[in-house]
Amino acid sequence: LLLVMDERNTPMRTYQVCNVMEANQNNWLRTRHISREGAQRVYIEIKFTLRDCNSLPGVPGTCKETFNMYYYESNNANLWFIKESQYVKIDTIAADESFTQVDVGDRVLKLNTEVRDISNLNKKGFYLAFQDLGACIALVSVRVFYKKCPLTVLNLAQFPDTITGGDTALVEVHGLCVNGSEEFEAPKMYCSADGGWLVPIGRCVCKPGFEENKDVCQSCRTGTYKALATDAYCSKCPPHSSSPLEQATECVCEKGFHRAEVDPRSMACTRPPSAPENPISTVNETCAMLEWSQPRDTGGRGDVTYSLHCRKCSGDGKKCAPCGSSVHFIPRQFGLSSPIVLVADLQPDSNYSFTVESQNGVSDLSSTPRGTVVINITTSQTVSVVLKERRSKDSVTLAWQGPERPNGVIVEYEVIYYEKNQREQNYTVLKTRSNMMTVEGLKPGTTYVFRVRARTDGGYGGYGGEIELETSHEGVFTWMNPVTFYSLFTQLIFCIMLYINDNQTMNLFFRHCGYIKAKQDPDEEKMQFQHVKLPGSRTYIHPHTYEDPNQAVRDFAKEIDASNIRIERVIGAGEFGEVCSGRLRVQGKREIYVAIKSLKAGYSDKQRRDFLSEASIMGQFDHPNIIRLEGVVTKCKPVMIITEFMENGSLDTFLKKHDGQFTVIQLVGMLRGIASGMKYLSDMSYVHRDLAARNILVDSNLVCKVSDFGLSRVLEDDPEAAYTTRGGKIPIRWTAPEAIAYRKFTSASDVWSYGIVMWEVISYGERPYWEMSNHDVIKAIEEGYRLPAPMDCPVVLHQLMLDCWEKGRSERPKFGQIVTILDKLIRNPGSLRELANSSVWSPSSPEFSVSTVDEWLDAIKMGQYKDNFSSAGYVSLDSILYISMGVTLAGHQKKILSSVQSLQTHGTHVQV
Length: 912
Ligand code: AMP
What we know:
- By secondary structure, this protein is an alpha+beta fold.
- Helix content is about 20%, strand content about 30%.
- The chain starts with a strand and ends with a strand.
- Its EC number is 2.7.10.1.
């Protein structure tokens, strides 16, 4: 150990050895025990100087210019001797720089710095040793350190200071939700070997009553509330409610106002409706149509319904009793949604009193009496009791008595008759002013049914009883008894027939019964199941193969007269200028909506060529899922490309705007369209290179079309594209590894991008790999990580994504196969029912064998519910197959239940 001066003349201690003149050197220097402090990988930085043998005059050939570094792992901190053979060699260390002068006084020290690491340490600590075999060395410093990922808060989860792992392994770290937040999906990240955090998964969300502000959850202020953890922010209390305290999870209703159980917390508090108004009745025989108008005050709700209470009253209206079940209401008596009802099977010549009550979703919560209106009616008298009849071989004579108290002057009588059991086919109506009629022209020996009713100036009365008469064989008159059986069905049909003639509102009832078939829009179907035209032997021709690029434009794009175009609105910005919407008039056809891309003024020749290259590429395609070129304007300025107009714009923005609003089948329909368009492109040997949701356009029928075909686009246009180490610009997150690494763009790399588009679609426009840096994405993919299934993603779809992300490009499915798979899923939507476990970061999800409830909960990271389970008596794995626990977090319930399901199917193996 020597004391020397460094460059700045400050004294420093160095360990030196310089036995270069003698052969067979083997000198050792050893450190004390160095504690590992939990780190698996430790870095050793050494600073030293090393003498160049040539600079030493007269040294023998045994002079060395290297030395060796070793370590020995041990739990014992007090070893005084370690055998040479026990050491593990770290490296042979050579110098980059060497010093040539020996003179300590005027020499300049040139320091070498070298860093080595040792990994997979597992004992308490280690000893370092340096072996000199005959060099001239001064060891100046040895610094031993390890790396940590620093404490961080992400997605409201706190990740602790974490020591990095050994080798290249990532350390999986589970985050703890910050105060006022709860797990939405178990948060975790990976601490990488170089001390950086990678691949964040899951997140915490602020609990009800709290909202996110930077990395903390703060209480909702008074007058605001947050009902669900998944709501982003506290909202103002809805009308007729307030929250006098902070942290409100809902607002309390003002006095007299209520919130029904099914009402969302964001809905205003409401009250019961006022009484129905303007009652009207129309009585026809023993049927009555009752109508009224909506209450003036619906209480702020749209769910007003009506119920009727029927009472039959004495002549003077003083004594009333409930009607009983013989009276029928059409469509029903209680819970009517329209202010109209038909009452049938009333008794003739009777007084009825109907109370119509209005109610809504909060009526049951209110103590105020219901709003009601009363409708009183009197039914007309029945006829007409048949007193006598006579019959002969071919005729029947009937005589009857008119009603005792007709409700008006009798104008005429109506006789209806038909052959017994034949009414539906053929019946005859005859009219007479007298009390008697002879019906002639009947068949001998045949039974007929007769009925008679009176018509007064107030309408028809009810029919008297049915009379069955058989014409005689010989012409003798016989008297028979009337049959007074009415079936409920017969009466109802008669009532309804009467009303159909003079009351349009009856349509309503039929509609309620579903008689009117819903109109179907054939276009709706078209959207999901377009058929792909086989492209035959057509192949895409690259515009660069043309000597004159203008010729390519002339060959593939139609020149449009600018006077036929009407520009209306700016809808976006493209690489070369604005994108507008407008209309195009085509001779002999209707005007169509188009998108117009124009080339901004001041362009270079190359820009014009690149701009028009998109048209000469697009013009070669003809497929329902590829954006259609209408034509170009090149003969006058500005130069324009006209394409069909896609009402819903680009797919990524469209999905973000409609988050969660589509059925899985609709999403699969969109994906099917994109796959079909890509199949067409790959059949034509066109490689897209920039397939991403932002380059898919959506029309008003949700049909998705592939767009963005310019030659320069991947290089300049796409804001997602980043420079790679090889110089090209590539949208990293969407691009297959072989295309990033050595620009191997093929239809198989398009399939990889298609998998990413699938993920974007199912997650409603989420950014792939979230906020991970491009560098981390490349690294994670290389290490075998793949995007996890988005929320509510069917297992089959995530599996298809994983297939698209196979490392080996020949392993990936072809677009044709993808179309077939998606078609099958659409035809058999049941296959989409099983959802992927959204917290799995695929492809390898470890399986643990579990035998107790506690082990199972630990395995699915739901250990915090052990007490809930044991106190509810669920002690064996079998018993949890029938659980209903106090686990209130929806995400946790889902996770536990899906694991229970998998227990049911897979025995005691749990996927975590
Ligand atoms: P592009 O230069 O093709 O990326 O277009 C820029 C933006 O203009 C797109 O993101 C769309 O929002 C919009 N756009 C382009 N073409 C159309 C079209 N055919 N129909 C509707 N919007 C379009």
